[in-house]
Amino acid sequence: xxSLENISASIHQLLSxxxxxxxxxxxxxxxxxxxxxxxxxxxxLILVFMERKVSAWIQIRLGPNRVGPKGxxxxxxxxxxxxxxxxxxxxxxxxxxxxxxxxxxMIIAMMLLAPIAFAxxxxxxxxxxxxxxxxxISSVSVIGILMAGWASNNxxxxxxxMRSGAQIISYEISAGMAILTIIVLTGSLQISExxxxxxxxxxxxxxxxxxxxxxxxxxxxxxxxxxxAPFDMAEAESELTGxxxxxxxxxxxxxxxxxxxxNIFIVCAVGATLFLGGWxxxxxxxxxxxxxxxxxxxxxxxFLGKTFFLIFVIMWFRWTFPRLRIDQLLNLxxxxxxxxxxxxxxFMTLIAIKGWHF
Amino acid sequence: MFxxxxxxxxxxxxxxxxxxxxxxxxxxxxxxxxxxxxxxKLEPNLGYIHxxxxxxxxxxxxxxxxxxxxRMDYLSSHINNHACxxxxxxxxxxxxxxxxxxxxxxxxxxxxxxxHQLWWGAMAMDLGALxxxxxxxxxxxxxxxxxxxxxxxxxxxxxxxxxxxxxxxxPNFVKRVKDFIVLFKxxxxxxxxxxxxxxxxxxxxxxxxxxxxxxxxxxGCTGPTARGSGVSCDVRKxxxxxxxxxxxxxxxxxxxxxxxxxxxxxxxxxxxxxxxxEQLIDQIPEGExxxxxxxxxxxxxxxxxxxxxxxxxxxGVYIVSEGGTTPYRIKFRSPGFSNLSAxxxxxxxxxxxxxxxxxxxxxxxxxxxDR
Amino acid sequence: MENEELIAQVQTRFPEASxxxxxxxxxxSIDSKQxxxxxxxxxxxxxxxxxFLFCETCVDWKTxxxxxxxxxxxxxxxxxxxxxxxxxxxxxxxxxxxxxxxAELHEREIFDLFGIIFTNHPHLRRILLTxxxxxxxxxxxxxxxxxxxxx
Amino acid sequence: xxxxxxxxxxDIYEAIVSLLKGMKLTGYYFTHHKEIITQEYPENRATLxxxxxxxxxxxxxxxxxxxxxxxxxxACELACPNGTIKILNKFEVNAEGKxxxxxxxxxxxxxxxxxxxLCIVACPTDAIKMAQTFEHSVFDRSLLTKKLNQPNxxxxxxxx
Lengths: 358, 371, 151, 160
Known about the structure:
The structure holds four protein chains of four kinds. By secondary structure, chain A is mainly alpha-helical. Chain A has one domain. Chain A contains 15 helices and two strands. Chain A has helices at residues 4-18, 21-58, 74-84, 95-112, 130-138, 141-151, 155-186, 191-196, 203-206, 208-225, 237-240, 250-275, 288-296, 299-318, 326-354, and strands spanning 117-119, 122-123. Chain A has a two-stranded antiparallel ribbon. Chain C has a five-stranded mixed β-sheet with strand order 1-2-5-4-3, with helices on one face. A two-stranded parallel sheet of chain C has the order 6-7. Chain C is an alpha/beta fold. The radius of gyration of chain C is 16 Å and the shape is elongated. The longest helix of chain C has 12 residues, at 103-114. Chain C has three helices and seven strands. By secondary structure, chain D is an alpha+beta fold. Chain D has three helices and seven strands; from the N terminus they run αββαββαβββ. In chain D, strand 3 (85-93) and strand 4 form a beta hairpin. The termini of chain D are far apart. Classes of the chains: A mainly alpha, B alpha+beta, C alpha/beta, D alpha+beta. Chain B binds chain C through residues 1, 44-47, 50, 52, 54-55, 59, 90-91, 214-215, 217-220, 222, 231-233, 238, 302-307, 314, 316, 318, 320, 328-329, 331, 333, 337-338, 340-342, 345, 370-371, and chain C through 22-25, 27, 51-55, 57, 59-60, 68, 70, 74, 77, 81, 100-102, 104-106, 109, 113, 126-131, 137-138, 150-151.
């Protein structure tokens, strides 16, 4: 059976049979870099298109339908437009930081891709602290946003960046708590082990109510962490016109835009890995026939299906809810999400110690 | 005009909101001072779309000047035209046929509905919910189609002329309006589900933009803005014009004084408008749709003040006539202008996000303010 | 209160004012220097209680200006129009914006378009036109050969 | 403490219910594509049906003999609030050798027109009417200044 695992393994065999170990590593690294960049561009195109179609259908519109069949090349056309536009640097801006900021945001989004298991035994770097790596690195992205806001020499940008700082730092906590709730069950931070621990059922179902609560909190917290509506305080286009990227144009803006979508992909991938079993197929108890059919679907399809479902949920939020105010946003975190997730973690620990989970 | 200031001596941030800003719905310019996220000072700077309609009207005849008023508050253009036509008719002392009165009131109420729907969508958009805008437009489009069929235009109709209306209603009019009411009643529940009942929306709207009854009167607020503070100011009730004294409807009053009260006034007003339309739509009497008037209208010497209730509040048309064919002076007392003056009072001490919410609920139409 | 009764009551309070019943509202003509005391009385007197200034404007009669204040009482539902003539060379009148906050923007607009000076106004600046605009467009003798289209 | 906790959880419950209600509605529209109301404009040109009263531009209908009904009385020119119409008259000698006023050029400035319909109402002979066209965009502004009477057109018999 052709699977991503087999393909990568056979490439590795082919290379190591003919070349020295250093050359193999170098070539493999460049292949991975190429793949990562391609994935990046593809994800950007697909997610932006998906967002536009989802929003259109929710808003009883047709959505993009002019460029290509059913408008599928719309985002490609947009990218070309953005690439051709003048990259404008406002007068009085801190030019170095201004130009650096989109790359910081972008590189952090790229680094986050590393530990994600896209399919069975198919990850760039299955390091033993995978989840911790993601939480640690993703909090750095606020620096890029603060950089952009400060360097733009624009009050709107500054306000947006400050809001973003307050928001990301506070929501990081409950996102971390929600992740910790599952880590308590798995006992490992390694992504592959987390996935393997769910071979007999996803944590969302095995972990009783605390897992469901953790899942809801995780979705809310990461929506806030990625600056998505209803928590898009950093952009808040009706209040701050564009927030931290008000002054950005052309390709620099496109990088911010792309990074936002990559971040959504990553947090949804992590959510799918932790709660929905990553690339594990959906099994129901002793239904052998059903389970066998489910096994037949490739693991990468399972992973992407779960991830895109979560992405859709986050998009669904965006096109339904009004935006929160900044103080209400912090209220929600500190008065509701944080205490609930702390108690939730306590319960989950109890469950894990007593072995009440399935 | 304003020098480039980023921060004043108190460490407060000075921000230009507008003239190009998504929340101002046009070319309104607000100079706000922020202490952190809190607005401490707000100063409106108007005139970006000032066309001096009052001066223009001084050289237009009494038939011609009505069309300019469609361009003031373009969302209640019928009602603006109504005010002018009423003013001219009052001065000429002519009676207009009953059929014309019915058509006028029906059209005015449909306009009010359309205007409130657009406000609802735009306000939700200001708060960051983008989908309600399209749901609101779906219903509004039906009204626009009805208008287009009868009046020949969708926004700036110029349908009311001194002495009646320009043409008779279209044969389909009655049926389509009835269909619309059925549709509207089935869809209005969505408004509550999606926005009014939403916990985020309620938290955003409650206890912001507070203006007491006394302040609302002192600032000259009218329309839903004042009625949200419990000020009875519906011209249709207090000084009934046209056939409003014969129809049953309630003046919507809320006593919360905050943005949410104003929101509720507008939502409830939609039901009242539907009620008025339902009463009148089957009762349109047969007869002429226009009274006979002279080709050239001359008004007697004197001063005439007409007030009507637009979707935003009270519109006053003050005509000073010297007995000629053109007005000597015309003053339009537009509702938005006075409502805007209360904005600073409402916004002070609230967050910048509240500024957007309060402005959304004020329902400012900038050409109405600038004229 | 009916108009006749209102006129009688206002007349007794301000004997020097001339009151006529206009087309819509009773019109009271007063001396421009008397404006503030008159408005103060009209607003505070409980039987009159004119608390709502719904329109404030000016008319250029070529020889003089006339300031027109439309007042309403939201409790008694009666209306009154106050008129005050101003000198055309140096038009000056006391501001009403300390009694009626609505007057603040209206007076700025009148200053902008007619050039009437409202003394004690907190910030009397142009509001609709640009700050460097020359002339007052709603005056009858205003002429702008570029922007005005004569039919 | 108990009442506080009760309030706390009721608040959360009510908030979640209200949010789910909204999501149900948007989810309904997401899955029901028949509710889509937008149209694909240039493609639906053939089926686009404008009401007969729609005010697109002023036109002067001519019959098959190239005759119109405009006597050149300038009522429309006077009725127009913004100088959109300009009528240039000439004097024609008719069959009986009498001089008669007739229009030379009926100039219509589409770029100034606000479609207020006052000229149509003012016309005593119904010589002009509103057309239902609405695609007026051109690259040259001078193309918007139109001459409404066709070349060599005449006044229809019997119209004074």
